[in-house]
Amino acid sequence: MDIKEQLETIESEARKLFDSVKDREALEKLRVKYLGKKGKIADIFSQMGKVDSDERPVIGRKTNELKNLIAELHQEKKSELEELLKARKMKREEIDITLPGIKPEMGYTHPLSVIINEVKQLFIGLGFSIAEGPEIESEYYNFEALNIPEHHPARDLQDTLYIDDQFLLRTHTSPVQIRTMEDKNPPIRIIAPGRVYRSDELDASHSPVFHQIEGLVVDKDISFSDLKGTIQVFVEEMYGADREIRFRPSYFPFTEPSAEVDVSCIVCEGKGCSLCSGTGWLEVMGSGMVHPNVLEMSGLDSRVYSGFAFGMGWDRIAMLKYGIDDIRVLFENDLRFLRQF
Amino acid sequence: MKVPYNWLKTYIDFPYSPEELAHKLTMAGLEVEDVEYLGQGMEGIIVGEITEISEHPNADKLVICQVDTGHETLQIITGAPNVLQGAKVPVAPTGVTLPNGLKIEETILRGKASRGMICSEDELGLIEERAEGIMILDEEAEVGTQIAEYLARNEYVLKLDLTPNYARCLGLLGIARELKADLADNKIKFPENNYQPNEEQIKDLINVEIKDPELCSRYTGILVKNVDIKTSPEWMQLRLKAAGIRPINNIVDITNYVLLEYNQPLHAFDYDKISGRKIIVRRASKDEKIVTLDEQERVLDEDILVIADEEKAVGLAGVMGGANSEITEESTSIFIESAYFNPVNIRKTARRLSLPSEASHRFERGVDIENVLEAGKRAAYLMQKLAGGEVVGGVIDQYPVPYKQKNIVININRVNRILGLELKAAEMKEMLERLEFKTGIKANQLKVEVPSYRNDVELEADLIEEIARMYGYNNIPVTCPDSKSLGKMNDKQKLEGIVRNIMTASGLNEIVTFSLMDEKYYDLLDITAEDELRKHVRIKNPLNQAFSLLRTSLFPGLLEVLANNARRQVEEMKVFELGKVFFRAEQGKRPREKFMLAGGSMGCKVDYFDTGAPDFYCLKGIIDNLFNRLDIRGVKYKKVENSFMHPGRTAGIEYNGHLIGILGELRPGVIEELDLITRTSIFELDFAELLANTRINDYKYAHLPKHPAVSRDLALVVDENIPAAEILEIIKEKGTEILKDVKIFDLYQGDQIPEGSKSLAFKLNFQSGDRTLIDKEVKDIFNLIISTLKKKINAEIRGN
Ligand SMILES: [Zn+2]
């Protein structure tokens, strides 16, 4: 067989073999078979001496072309096999993506904290600061300075837990109003969240220990309409913008005029249900214009300054917002409960 | 206060349904809690007449009645023994549901159809016990009338929850006045009180002396003779019952009836039991005794005002009458007392004797001193009319401290400024006059005369409320106050948020527990009497044992939470709480309040060093992270002991030489007692210390090192009693500033090393901020560390 024929045979044979090779070992063997030191291309080159000198350049060129072609075939196949291998490996690595993820242990914030954080952020946005006061209070701050003299029937409104003749557990966060007004000149704009105490037996709707949020704004020219505006912003943020709000006359010794704030029931939308005792309204807070006696007792001139105050049950906000129907749940701290917030 | 709708309507005509009235009153400030329909469950039951009775062919004990109900005749079979032809009876036709829930259906009884039921009193819910037979109604009862109406049960009762400033509305006339403010054309129909006196004069029959005008500023009396004591008429009994008052006899009922009309408590004395024909209003003497109407003997003192005759006290003024002057069936002459007593004194007496009454409730809140006599006259009128009494001419009216007309001047501009309105003087005047405040306008001021029954009105602010009420709270515009200030939190409040975030990010769940607790926890934790934790504040009037003390530590609440969850099969739980604790101070001083952070862990699964104390180390890691985050450096853990923590597993957390907290595993006994998971550990930190020492606001950026770090491992065997902290201290000291970090990554105790010793492995990281460390430099320092460890703690270096 002359060299030309050999070259043709090698080419067609190599094309077939490289095409059908299935793994890297076989491919390597093919490479050696054709391109190795003793391979078929080397064999051709070794026959060059027998070739006519005028044909030699042509044969030489063709042989080189064939060598390059085979090298190319090898390279192509090699990449192809590598790709295949990667694909196979990934196929083997397939996982069940529906298995659960690994959850790092996460702690939950108590719903009362969730609520108060929201409330604080809201009021800070409205220019309020956060005030605090002691939970053990004197008669003076808890009652007298709030215009609740001894032997006034208003004392019946709250059953007090006493420490001794001088101190008691505050029955509301309102003493913080007095402490703030004593410490600071207007403009005053604070909320005072805190823990309060009453001599109430523990049941689904009462607790001897609970939480309130007090609000106080004192300045020149503070009006009842300002009170309404501030409370409206709060109610819309906490209970939703579509809540209806109504103010109705009420009585708190430390505000005059006083108003109870109702919002349309979040369950029945005003139609009447068990949550709102059929009235369609939920009482959410007490409020009013700071009583002139209170301003005066705290050292502010009631002819110069006016203000408004409001107070609400912080536990109650959580209960309404999350649909909790038993206040005790808040203090039981069942893990299944805590993990819901 | 229970307000019967139809009764109220007799004093003022108003166009509201019971529900509308409830809404109206609620929006006026008189909160209506509930509206009750007294005929509840009687709907559909009507008056029928038994027109014909025939025997039941198939049953001896049953009869077949034909009952006329006005528009049809029903055949009804009954077994009642008292059926009577011509009797008027309550009939529940087919389809009606009885108050007890029984639905009447057409039935066949022994072959004969029955289309309804003739009811007994118990079936109507009128009596509790079972009635003998059917209820027979009056002959005049009109066939076809709803039984609720016939029984005067067609009444709605509004239950009012009145705040102290609405005390005037503890009488129906007061409520009528409130309604009148919105009903300009309607007049209040005041009750009739014009009686016909006889020829006698009261001053010839009885005298009154007020010894203490300060406690009794007005005392009036009327004498009614020859009364016939009996039950009061049906209509009066029904009204009283609807208002929640039990009828007794006509005289007592009349005093109660007038009380509900006028908000003026009255007392009726048996005139013949008053010796010396004299009433003396005086303070009781010390240890004076009286048996009150409830048959209790009361021991009195000088602070209590009594009504007395010449010999004895005959009543506690304004609180309760005495048994010795009580009206009985034999009484014939009645002395009606209508007076004004000092509110504070009445309140003190009622509280002292634990004797709240309808009377004291009203006197405490102040009655209308100017109308005291009117109410007494009303009672005399009713006694004349309903008890056949003969009213003696003249009245007693001792009025030593006359009422002073109260006038308030209000500034129109201020009213508008406070309410955010722009009302004119005339508009304000009109509103106030609707509430019967006589008002005069002078420049920008209103001069307002306060009616005598408005003892709640004292200041301009009170009138501002009245104007706001009349204008309608909900008609006042909505504005927002100008804000000149920036809202912010103080450092403590900010830190609280940061700590809460660190705790939850560390996997601790926040809990909130009661600050009132049971002393039993101190015993359970074996806390000794001298322990600081026993310096608790005790509640003087606790509700019960469970809420009798203020906590001195967050631990009891926290342990209870862990225990409750453990009992519910929770296997692993970490919690924390931020809250106040309280400590007793010296006598007369305000108790101390401290804000604390506490945490607990039970059932932790990760035991990194295999020490069998996973919860302890878990909490310790979290605390270390906390200090690190707050940039509080140099916290030390020192072994301490306390009564409820494991003696070998408890650390005092020390900073700057003093304790700021404690961390430890609970004693096995405590764990067992509370059903906790073994190894449960807890910690508590003084939040004030965190706040005082944090440098969280001073963070400064440290340039990131550009030069490579060199790391070396060091394993050594030391005596097992040498604390890791001591070794770390030596390594850090000798490591100089190029030792950036050192970590313990292994702890081993066991067969491979001698007994009584432990092996610890450290990873040391060297790095310099300004150069690449050369090998020799690191090697020299590393060798110095080794030689120091050998020398100081006798360490044996492994694999070296
Ligand atoms: Zn509802």
Number of helices of chain B: 20
**Order of strands across the widest beta sheet of chain A?**
1-4-5-9-8-7-6
Biggest interface, and residues per chain? A-B, 87 and 91 residues
> How widely separated are the two ends of chain A?
88 Å
Helix content of chain B: 25-40%
**What's the overall average pLDDT of chain A, rounded?**
93
What labels would you give this structure?
heterodimer, A: 341 residues, alpha+beta, BirA Bifunctional Protein, domain 2, 2 domains, seven-stranded mixed beta sheet, two-stranded antiparallel sheet, 9 strands, B: 800 residues, Phenylalanyl-tRNA Synthetase, Chain B, domain 1, OB fold (Dihydrolipoamide Acetyltransferase, E2P), Phenylalanyl-tRNA Synthetase, Chain B, domain 3, 6 domains, six-stranded mixed beta sheet, 20 helices, elongated, binds zinc ion
In short:
With 341 residues, chain A is of the alpha+beta class. Chain A has two domains: 3-93; 113-338, BirA Bifunctional Protein, domain 2 (2-Layer Sandwich). Chain A has twelve helices and nine strands.
Description:
The complex is a heterodimer of chains A (341) and B (800). Chain A is of the alpha+beta class and 341 residues long. In chain A, 42% of the residues lie in helices and 19% in strands. In chain A, strands 1-4-5-9-8-7-6 form a 7-stranded mixed beta sheet, with helices on both faces. A two-stranded antiparallel sheet of chain A has the order 2-3. In chain A, helix 1 runs parallel beside helix 4, helix 2 runs antiparallel to helix 4 and helix 5 packs across helix 10. Chain A is rod-shaped and about 135 Å long. Chain A starts with a helix and ends with a helix. Chain B has 800 residues and is an alpha+beta fold. Chain B starts with a strand and ends with a strand. The interface between A and B is large, with 87 and 91 residues. Zinc ion binds next to loops of chain A.
